[in-house]
Specification:
23% strand, Metallo-beta-lactamase, Chain A, three-stranded parallel β-sheet, alpha/beta
Length: 196
């Protein structure tokens, strides 16, 4: 919140938030901490992929590894409190003008990336498909400990990186270092991230 304030962004001015997945570093900023539990972005619609929502909202949290259960419990506390703001969607139709979801599972079952377009300008917001580009763009076959299904995450990563190369589309990701946007190029058996 201090960074939004420093940038002059009032949380009340945010109208739409598109969720890639339900890991803590991507959603815990939506509400203040318990016991207060108040939405931070009071005027925003939360656009949530259906597969991700269904997975984390399943009350049978014991099916998850022990380390993931507290996250599932918090998700199940948070989202019902914001239910009037949550818009669960399916498919790849625009969720907001110029923004289409891209199914990108593996990191989580319903992980979703987004294709943003304005005229001929395009950007793919990869979310956590590649996590740290110096590691997972260069070495797409490496698997991250946070990926729920490593084989699917790798297949998704290769597919989206190939798409970015073929379409010459700008990409960004949540854990990319500054300047955090650039292009993907083939590089031997892997890829290279070329910052903008």
């Amino acid at each position: 919140m201090k960074h939004l304030a420093a940038a002059g962004v009032d949380p009340g001015s945010v109208n739409h938030i598109l969720i890639s997945h339900f890991h803590a570093d991507h959603i815990f900023g939506l509400m203040t901490k318990a016991p207060e539990n108040k939405p931070v972005f009071q005027n925003a619609v939360l656009h949530v992929p259906a597969t991700e929502y269904k997975f984390w909202m399943d009350p049978a949290v014991e099916r998850l590894p022990e380390a993931r259960r507290p996250l599932a419990k918090r998700v199940q506390e948070m989202f019902p409190m914001m239910k009037d703001k949550v818009q669960v969607y399916e498919g790849d139709k625009e969720v907001v003008a110029g923004i289409r979801p891209i199914d990108s599972p593996g990191h989580t079952p319903g992980h979703t990336s987004y294709h943003v377009s304005s005229g001929s300008d395009q950007l793919i917001v990869l979310g956590d498909v590649t996590n740290i580009p110096a590691l997972f763009v260069r070495n797409p076959g490496w698997h991250a400990g946070f990926d729920q299904d490593a084989a699917t995450a790798e297949a998704t990563r290769r597919k989206l990186l190939d798409r970015a190369v073929a379409d010459r589309t700008m990409v960004t990701g949540y854990h990319f270092p500054f300047p955090a946007a650039g292009r993907i190029a083939k590089d031997g058996n892997g890829y290279a991230f070329v910052p903008a």
